Amino acid sequence: MSILIVDDNEANLFVIEKLLHRAGYSDHISFTSAHDLLDYVYSESPSTIMEQVDVILMDIMMPEMDGIEACRILQENVHLKDIPIIFITALEDSEKVVEALDAGGMDYLMKPINKTELLARLRVALRLKYEKDWHKQQEAKISAELELSMQVQTSLLSEPILQNQLVVKASYKPAYKLAGDLYYWYQLDQNRIAVIQLDMMGHGISSSLVCMFISSVLRDAIRTNPDPEFVISELNRWMVSIHHDQNLPYYFTAIYLVVDTDKQTIEYINAGHPTGHVLVEGDQLVELSSNTCAVGFFDNIRTKKEMIHYKDSVQIILCTDGVHEAIDKYEQKGLEWLKSRSTTLYTEAFDVEVEPIDLLLSEEQQQAANDDMCVVLIQAGNLVNTIDSRHNFVESKIVT
């Protein structure tokens, strides 16, 4: 612990040093000007000084630079602004005292200095500094844990697939560090792939934890039986068990589908999720509307899969409600906008650097969003062979 004392009068410095020493505060450094104080605090890293210095006792009236100006300079530094400053003054001008406190001072003492008042104010300042330091340490600890959790959650997301007959990629933008949105796909065999996009109730830490749990259940369910009716029923069973066993009333919306490039079919279930859009043969738009309730709403839900056929090519766009809200907070305009955008064949999808969400939302819309956002883009069939040459498609970017 260190206390810095600033006063242009050396007699005043001597008195304060004596009082502090007798009270057991032996670690203190004195300065005769505000410039000397600033030179000292900036002689090392401000973050290091912040850890070493607990309180500053500073005179208001000093030549060249007064204590108020020095205080304002310290307040501009993110590391130094939390060091408590107790002003010392012989002025009886209340406006000057108010100005000093408005500049960032925590308290003030009148000269001549009263020992009891000095020590009482010092104890309060030290307690405040200790509490601020403790909160900063806790925030740093929580931030590190959140960063680790974010890495774990991100590791659960599937890698893009860029093949001649199949492209699957996604954009994932949490509102905070952790998200309640999840996407996953699994190559069942040479011709079939299972894909899901889900949006857990709420967002943040609690939603992300339930998401991570359901992710493991999802993987087991798909490997056991990838049929949409089985997978959605199995996920519902586990969500209901969480509700009953742990009293956690969570639910999620989802679109789960299986694309078969050999039979040229798409089997899907939409469990209360925003409408997905399928562009068949480049000109026919089919909507993947909700055909059952959200997963976890009821003990038993009706799961009836639907099927879409295509002959040559198909493009599927799935979005969580955060994307709709980024376009229009009431979501209706968002649905119409996405519907119109889904009629475009996105040749940019074959570029690994291009994010699907950038094809739908501007940077401003993405920055202004306050909900988790996820976009999944799937392209299957012979659309690679029909790409317009003006897009300068680079063959080497496709993994065959």
From TrEMBL:
MF term (GO), any: phosphatase activity
Q: Which residues form the signal peptide?
A: none
What InterPro entries does this protein map onto?
Bact_Sigma-Reg, CheY-like_superfamily, PPM-type-like_dom_sf, PPM-type_phosphatase-like_dom, Sig_transdc_resp-reg_receiver
Question: Locate the Response regulatory domain: which residues?
Answer: 2-126
Q: Name one GO biological process term.
A: phosphorelay signal transduction system
Keywords (alphabetical) are: Hydrolase, Phosphoprotein
Any idea which residues bear 4-aspartylphosphate here? D59
| Superkingdom classification of source | Bacteria
Write down the Gene3D superfamilies for this protein, in alphabetical order: 3.40.50.2300, PPM-type phosphatase domain
Q: Which residues form a coiled coil?
A: none
PROSITE patterns assigned:
RESPONSE_REGULATORY
**Name of the protein this chain belongs to:** Response regulator
Which species does this protein come from?
Bacillus coahuilensis p1.1.43
